[in-house]
Amino acid sequence: MADAALFEFLHTEMVAELWAHHSDPGPGGQKMSLSVLEGMGFRVGQALGERLPQETLAFREEVDILKFLCKDLWVAVFQKQMDSLRTNHQGTYVLQDDSFPLLIRMASGLQYLEEAPKFLAFTCGLLRGTLCILGIKSLVTASVASLPTCKFQVVIQKT
Amino acid sequence: MSRQANRGTESKKMSSELFTLTYGALVTQLCKDYENDEDVNKQLDKMGYNIGVRLIEDFLARSNVGRCHDFRETADVIAKVAFKMYLGITPSITNWSPAGDEFSLILENNPLVDFVELPDNHSSLIYSNLLCGVLRGALEMVQMAVEAKFVQDTLKGDGVTEIRMRFIRRIEDNLPAGEE
């Protein structure tokens, strides 16, 4: 069983490597790196979701699925629960983590705010991928006002 | 069985698969980014090295092992403490060279390759090469220059996975002139 620290170390190195490889100075380059990271997170999220047994998937309502992400998925990936979940009851959810582990090593406050998006892209994809397997199509974005607090916004796409 | 108990098991299982799945996604991406397997192998080694130089601090802080006095002690610590702590497996140590400067780590199961099959056009890919870089980087930080390489790989049809470790030299601390 792989230790949790290994994932964090791997993630940090992945961000550095993919950033270096995919970025060019123009704005287009940045976006491509973020979408590469997001895509990887998406596939991992799908794979994690696929391995859940059927009983776990018997959710009654959409909000139960979001709660599952905030508790079970977050504990499995980050050894803590999401700190808050809010919704407008119209398909938009905001998941807030007050001390997001992948940002903790980066110092707190406003320093490195610019760097934060690259450390969130994989996780956004992870959420989107797990939701996908649970039957929900979504758009997931993240925002950071002040490290290490961040918010993940999940917007359910109605088909 | 209560729902709470189910939840705990699921979290644990997801957690152990997370690293393996993420590593797989990384290798897949690198295969897209680089034209040939050799370049992917180099990249995995380099990334592993970067991880290793930071991992060693985490390891030393959590494991409380003291300084190793020779390569044999080092081998024991790598197999019985480090691999156990980070990957949950204990490789066996075999094939010591007469001079005591080379040994093999034999992994019956390699957690990185769960769910993995190498596609036909990647026969030169050393899938788990990150591990070699990690070993090299971590040991460099404790003043040992080593070479680590895979000599057997279950992904390529071998019965076990074998990493050969070779001690190159001790790295002397470089102190500024005038200091003791």
TrEMBL record, chain A:
What are the recorded Gene Ontology BP terms?
endoplasmic reticulum to Golgi vesicle-mediated transport
For this protein, the record's Gene3D superfamilies field holds: Trafficking protein particle complex subunit 3 (3.30.1380.20)
Pull one GO CC term from this UniProt entry: TRAPP complex
Q: Where in the cell is it found?
A: Endoplasmic reticulum; Golgi apparatus, cis-Golgi network
UniProt main location, coarse: endoplasmic reticulum
Recite the UniProt keywords alphabetically.
Answer: Endoplasmic reticulum, ER-Golgi transport, Golgi apparatus, Phosphoprotein, Transport
Looking up SUPFAM superfamilies in the UniProt record yields: Ligand-binding domain in the NO signalling and Golgi transport
Q: Which family does it belong to?
A: Belongs to the TRAPP small subunits family. BET3 subfamily.
Question: Its function?
Answer: May play a role in vesicular transport during the biogenesis of melanosomes.
Q: How does it assemble?
A: Part of the multisubunit transport protein particle (TRAPP) complex. Heterodimer with TRAPPC3. The heterodimer TRAPPC3-TRAPPC6A interacts with TRAPPC2L. Interacts with TRAPPC2L.
Protein name from the UniProt record? Trafficking protein particle complex subunit 6A
Tell me what organism the protein belongs to: Callorhinus ursinus (Northern fur seal)
Which gene is this protein's source? TRAPPC6A
TrEMBL record, chain B:
Instruction: Spell out the InterPro entries in the cross-references.
Output: Bet3, NO_sig/Golgi_transp_ligand-bd, TRAPP_component
The organism is Equus caballus
Task: Enumerate the UniProt keywords alphabetically.
Answer: Endoplasmic reticulum, ER-Golgi transport, Golgi apparatus, Lipoprotein, Palmitate, Transport
The UniProt function text for this chain reads:
May play a role in vesicular transport from endoplasmic reticulum to Golgi.
Q: Return the protein name.
A: Trafficking protein particle complex subunit
Pfam families documented for this protein:
TRAPP
What is the gene called?
Answer: TRAPPC3
Q: Name one GO cellular component term.
A: cytosol
Report the Gene3D superfamilies cross-referenced here. Trafficking protein particle complex subunit 3 (3.30.1380.20)
The family line of this record is: Belongs to the TRAPP small subunits family. BET3 subfamily.
Tell me where on the tree of life, at the top rank, the source sits. Answer: Eukaryota
Localized where? Endoplasmic reticulum; Golgi apparatus, cis-Golgi network
Q: How does it assemble?
A: Homodimer. Component of the multisubunit transport protein particle (TRAPP) complex, which includes at least TRAPPC2, TRAPPC2L, TRAPPC3, TRAPPC3L, TRAPPC4, TRAPPC5, TRAPPC8, TRAPPC9, TRAPPC10, TRAPPC11 and TRAPPC12. Heterodimer with TRAPPC6A. The heterodimer TRAPPC3-TRAPPC6A interacts with TRAPPC2L. Heterodimer with TRAPPC6b. The heterodimer TRAPPC6B-TRAPPC3 interacts with TRAPPC1 likely providing a core for TRAPP complex formation.
Q: Which biological process terms from the Gene Ontology are attached to this UniProt entry?
A: endoplasmic reticulum to Golgi vesicle-mediated transport; intra-Golgi vesicle-mediated transport
